[in-house]
Amino acid sequence: MKRFIACAAIGAAVVLGGALASLARAEDVQIDGKSYRKISVAEYRDKMKGGWIGQIAGVCWGAPTEFRYCGRIIPEEEAPKWTPDMINHAFGQDDIYVEMTFLRTMEEHGLDCSIRQAGIDFANSEYPLWHANVHGRKNLRRGIAPPNSGRPEFSHCADDIDYQIESDFSGLISPGLPNNAVRMGEKFGRLMNYGDGMYAGQFIGAMYAEAFFETDVVKIVEKALKAIPEGSGYAEMVRDLLQWKKEIPDDWQACWQKINEKYQLNPDYRKWSCTDVKGDFNIDVKINGAYVLVGLLYGNGDLDETIKIAFRCGQDSDCNPSSAAGVLFTTLGFSALPPRFSENLDEETRFSHTEYNFPALINVCESLATQAVEKEGGFVREENGERYFYIPKTEIVPSALTSCAAPTDRPLEGEEGFFTEEELAQLRFRELSEEEFFQKYMLGFKVEAMGPDMDPGQRHEYRGHKNVYLTHPVDRENGAILAGTVKAGAKTKLRFDVTYHLAGKVIGDFDLIVKVDGKEVLNETVSEKTVAEDGWRHVEIDLSEFAGKEVAVQIINQPNGWYFEGAYFSDFSLVDAE
Description:
By secondary structure, the chain is an alpha+beta fold. 35% of the residues lie in helices and 19% in strands. It starts with a strand and ends with a strand.
């Protein structure tokens, strides 16, 4: 067997907080006429671990600004400052926990698990979701199988940001394997997205795949661009950003203005997002993807500046810096990061609704990456006591071109497009209609007012209670309202249980207000300080003063600080107490 080194180190010195950090060597190698990329498993693991820290740091640093600055740049003086304890604010973040569901599916069912199994597992998840994710999951729970679940015929959110924010895993388990990231998009991205919404995640995954072997972010972006269809809207956006970087090399805010003019103010570029095309709020994947690239292209390799620029662009300003930082931190690796990003990391706490703490997460990614390398025709070899990945260099093959506005394929029909009875039996939670749920579990109450955040609606289980309903305030001033009519007797009491949002280290609270025939009979804060030992507030409303009347009851989930202010309700009953 003949072997020779085809090129020297790809790694280079990168600016890191004013100092230079030398990266480890990675080589291009030829064996029997075939080209491979060679990287030690230890170096892969270090870079992959760095990528996860980048994701976590980006989402935690940007979280206080999320959607508070829409259609405008965050002023420097209003930008939050990084502190080392922020790293542990990620355990309840959807930017992190959703992709772990996909990792778990592959861990349990193999790298080649079916898209239908992926859909079943996603349908069985219990964490809060928003936008395309929540519509995809609701479709799955209603029996609509993937890929139909993410199609525009079944969801008006198919171009939202969702798969972009949770696609990092696909690149972190695909060192030098962009085609594997493309396949992951076809499997997991189609659960909730379509067209540009899916291509965005394939692009992000391909950037990570290249970041194991390249430090120049422009080259990383250019290589990842080959992983998505040339004629897609998302590819157009990437080309725009590369061109604008050349035209305006040193002024990210001037670049932001160009992005705003085209991807915010021109409704043609946000047609299949769930938001008003004339509104400031914009969850479309193209503009938020542009903000990821602004951070990467104008951050010039500086970790802090990359994150800050990405979140100062506004809109989804925790998810965007998460993606940007994840890619950049991967180029460096965990061992080259400043201690401030990891020294306080809690390695014991599990991420919300997952089986993984940080060490377990790193281990499962290494295992899946090994499978991916071997599936692609590569291999693992031990040399001088150290294991190496030999990763075949292959031509990138993007998915077929389509768009939400003009799908080029049709929804699948029959058992191909919908779950079979056997598959439906695997779903732990089936969506009832709102009317059915309220009649069965909540005394026939109805939603009078509700905001969209935190995916309000039915929950199969929450904190030990079954058949729970989650509400969320309309906005910062107006609460969610559950309204119903009940017959009051001399000893009648309305009882229900309610609790606050708890996910890892994320703790919300809210004010609970109850009105009977317009009279306020309860007003108190529901928080970790006011619930019983089981974590629930057991509410009892005495209706005796309204005896003989049918009374209108309003139960209000009132905001008091706008931080995960969902209210979880269960166990409604009307009793004649002794």
